Amino acid sequence: MILQLLAGNLIHGLLLGGVYGLATMGLSLIFGVMNVVNVGHGAFIMVGAFITLTLFSVLGISPVLAIPVALLMGMALGFFFFYTVMRRLIKAPELASLLATFAIGILLEEVVKLIFGADFRGYNWGLGKIVLPITVIPLSKIYAFIGSIVIALFLYFWFSKTRLGTAVRAVVEDSEGARVCGVNVGWIYALSFAIGIGLTVMSGVMLTMFIPVGINPYMGGVYTLKAFVIAVLGGLSSPYGAFFAGLIFGLIENGAYVLFAQIPGVAPFPLTVSLAFWMLFFLLLIKPTGLLGKK
Amino acid sequence: MVKYYPLIPVLAIYLVMFLIGFYIEGMWQMVALLAFYCALGQSWNIFMGMTGYVDFGYVTFIALGTYGMALGISYTHQYEWLGIGIIFIGLILALFLASLSALLESFIALRLRGAYFAIACIGINEGLKHFIEGARIWGGSDGIIFYGALIQAFGRETSNHLTAFWADFAVFIIAALAAILNIYYMRSKIGYALTAVREDEDAAKVMGINTTKYKTIAFLTSGLLGAAVGAFAWGVKLAHVYPGDVFVIHYTIECIVVVLLGGAGTLLGPVVGGLVYGLSKYWLAVVLPGFQLLVFAPIIIIIIVVFPEGIIGFVKQKTKSTPLARYII
Amino acid sequence: MALLKLENITKTFGGLMALNDVSLEIEHGELIAIVGPNGAGKTTLFNIISGVYRPDKGKIIFEERDITRMPAYKRAPLGFGRTFQIPRPFNSATVRENVAVGAMFGSLAGKVSVDDSLEIADRYIELVGLEAHKDKEAGSLTPVEKKMMEMARALAMKPKLLLMDEAMAGMHPKDIDEMVRFLKKIKEKENIAVVSMVEHVMRAVVGLAERVMVMHQGSKLVDAKTEEALTEPRVIEVYLGRPPDESK
Fold first, then answer.
1. Which regions span the lipid bilayer (chain B) (predicted)?
2. Test the C interface: residue of B183, B192, B197 with most C CBs within 10 Å
């Protein structure tokens, strides 16, 4: 019985893990290129969720079509914040960029709250579901998973097969070297930040396909934290590492939930959330130097 | 003694605030709020201002301080002979919980730098919050409500006094103590070591500075002061604690704004920052209720981008080589 | 008794051999130049001596004490001073405070108060000729002033061994002569052993060192009296860029 429950949850975990992976790739890309941790990461996921919600419930547009809209709006936000704020902070102490991204996150939350209010919202796509012997999977979750994988693959090919993608990789490896080789590093920073934000906003669309409820201006915080755990798990500056780490994280999270639910007298949901942070703690404890590597 | 002259303006500001609150009708709540921000700013400054590390999880200490007080009072209020002693038991528990977490954190988190440190600190805060809720310890998400315990121990009138006056008074004392510790550290080897850590940690090690030791000293001091503020300003004053109310990273951000606004790493900065922030928050709550953050977020960004040295950093530059300079750091 | 003894030090980074079985003995008050082209392993050697890296193999003995595993911050109080290739001042602190940090945490650590340290700092600031800039922020100094400030900071540590990383790179020949004279004076006055690392300012080497160790690709090539070392064919080969096997 419990094994069946566990197996069912692991399937959901794997699907959610794909979305988590996508939701972390932007964070890793921005860190890899600019050495900036986007502490306001979750707020951009929230923006994606609101784009989906608005398109669907106001204009009746399918969440699938929200994906390109989210990418474009995300990149626009990325360019905007890069040229107004981040560009000036690349050479500043780490403190500055950490605080600035945090403040950007708050700004987004408050603007969204101003427009939509702080209520919890949701939508009902009603796509139908697949019934397996061990669990029932809504089709929208499968769409989200496939969508995430397709986007991750796109990014992979963009990185490895295009000139621009190669230039980004060069900047990740050694920004000074890339500059000497004629790469316009300033433009690569701007573009990577915009793509990173674009990916993150898109992942917000996927997340609402997966969990179409609980959409509110402050929903991002918990995803920021999960993304940190996943990014550290994946090596922090590697977007692909982040994607696979996302899959692993989804599996662990859903698996642990089932197990915690067996313990009497505890609240399994918050306990599962806290598990993520114990994992983070442990990871940083066993491998702090390895993770600090990039110099 | 000249070394300690910069304490004069700080303590004078606290005294004036206290007198205004005490003698002018209806002002006490406002000066208490200001003292709260000044105390937190100064406590936070000891670690972050001096080392340049960003501790997003600072609120963990304030929260644990609140829990310490709550646990102390709710477990000991039935022993009548303890009298006012139960508040001290609460304070000791608050400091104990905070130092436990500071030592655990410094063992792990202080070995990390920059972004990793910031991430680890957020992780600890959220991990602890969800663990308390998940494992249902200390009342889980239902928290601890101990106003009843206070009344049982002291009677209604004394309890009212405690929550409405003495809790805030304690915050004033902590703010003054934090100022003294700030300048003491700045003027001693600790301050020199921490400046070296902030500017170039690897070079500091080669110069013979045990960076871990000095960072831990600053972290612990800063955390204990934060816990004391939590124990009184949230604990005694509100007489309840819920994990969802106290482990909230936005409070850390408030500390950061206070310190940056006034000038990180200075003595007077967090005080001036606390006053400016507290007053504008108070005022915004009246004219634009619910939108303080909407106003503050762009302010943070503007400070970071164009005004990173803060108000006192700016004043310091202007008063350099004037007689005023010896009073301002 | 040697002041510092390196025994068969080996250090690799990834697959790259940065130091290969290097041994070296330094006497009290000796002036040694470590010479070698970029990538010869000089900086790695300095980092091993000052404790930034641990060697993979080999031993470091300082005044008959094994310090191979000792962290950097514990070595400084024993009598190590160091300057960096690119100066690393504590930018937001004043010159005086920077130098005082040296006095506070160097070999006088625990014996001097903050005020004493500031006084000691004043002495060394005068010695290097930066009195006029004493209360300036270190970050606002010119590159040469920063080098002199680092020198004062290292000397304020009262070291027995001073490690100078490319102290004269990028300096004007006139400044180099002055630096050399300054170092000789210091050495005589305070009996400090100076290990100076240079890439190619041979003029400075001649002026300064009593002994030269030439490094090439992580190994010790030559370790001899200065005059001998400079006429050694292998040294000339390294410097003229001829591959070493051509002479065979």
1. 6-24, 31-50, 56-75, 82-104, 164-185, 217-236, 248-270, 282-307
2. B192
Q: Is C241 exposed, middle or buried (0-12, 13-18, 19+ CB in 10 A)?
A: exposed
Strands C4-13 and C65-66: unpaired
> Tokens 């704004």 appear where?
B257
Residues of C in contact with B196 (CB under 8 A): 90, 93, 101
pLDDT digits (tens, 9 = 90+) for B168-178: 999 999 999 99
Domain of residue B53: give its range. Answer: 2-327
Chain B, 192 to 221: residues with Cβ < 8 Å from chain C are 192-193, 195-196, 198-200, 202-211
A/B touch flag: 3 or more CB pairs below 8 Å: yes
CA distance B39 to C242: 68
Best of C96, C99, C104, C137 to substitute, by most chain B Cβ atoms within 10 angstroms, is: C104
Separation of alpha carbons A223 and A228, rounded Å = 8
Helix residue ranges, H only, chain B: 7-23, 28-44, 50-51, 59-76, 85-108, 114-134, 147-161, 167-187, 189-199, 201-206, 211-229, 237-238, 243-246, 249-262, 269-287, 292-306, 310-319
How many CB atoms neighbour CB B279 within 10 A? 14
Residue with tokens 């937001």: C92
Q: Which domains does chain C have, with CATH numbers?
A: 4-63+160-247 (3.40.50.300), 90-157 (no CATH)
Nearest CA in chain A to B289: A114
Token representation of residue C60: 């470091």
Subunit contact A96:B308, Cβ cutoff 8 A:
yes
Q: Nearest Cβ partner of B208 from C73, C88, C91?
A: C73
Touching chains, B (3+ CB pairs < 8 A)? A, C
Q: b/e per residue, B221-231, with b = 16+ CB within 10 A? A: bbbbbbbbbbb
Domains of chain A: 2-292 (1.10.3470)
- Which residue shows structure tokens 């130091």? C19
pTM over 0.90: no
Pairing mode, if any, of strands B144-145 and A136-138?
unpaired
Q: Tokens 């990185």 identify what position?
A: A159
How many angstroms away from the CA of B263 is the closest CA of chain A?
Answer: 13
Beta bridge partners of C33: C196, C212
Q: C16 vs A157, B60, C11, C12, C40, CA distance in Å?
A: 32, 44, 9, 5, 12
Six token digits for residue C171: 């300096």
Residue of B nearest to C105 (CA): B208
Chain A contact set for B302 (CB, 8 A) = none
Complex ipTM, two decimals?
A: 0.87
Q: Could you list the pLDDT tens digit for every one of the 248 residues in chain C? A: 789 999 999 998 877 888 989 999 998 888 888 888 777 888 889 899 999 999 999 999 999 899 999 999 999 999 999 988 888 999 888 999 999 999 999 888 888 899 999 999 999 999 888 889 988 889 889 888 898 899 899 999 999 999 988 766 667 777 777 777 888 787 778 788 888 877 665 666 666 788 888 888 888 888 888 878 777 787 777 766 655 454 44
Residue B129 with chain A: CB contacts under 8 Å? 270, 274
Partner residue facing B195 (CB), from C51, C80, C92: C92
Report d(CA C65, CA C73) in Å as an integer.
16
What are the helix (H) ranges across chain A?
2-34, 41-59, 63-84, 94-116, 139-161, 163-173, 175-180, 185-210, 220-233, 239-261, 268-286, 288-292
pLDDT at residue C202 in the model = 65
The CATH number given to whatever domain includes residue B222 is 1.10.3470
Structural domain tally of chain B? 1
Q: Determine contact, residues C159/B206, Cβ cutoff 8 Å.
A: no
Q: Å from B104 to nearest chain A CA?
A: 11
Run of H or E including C9? strand C4-13
Contact of B322 with chain C, judged by CB distance below 8 Å, is answered with no
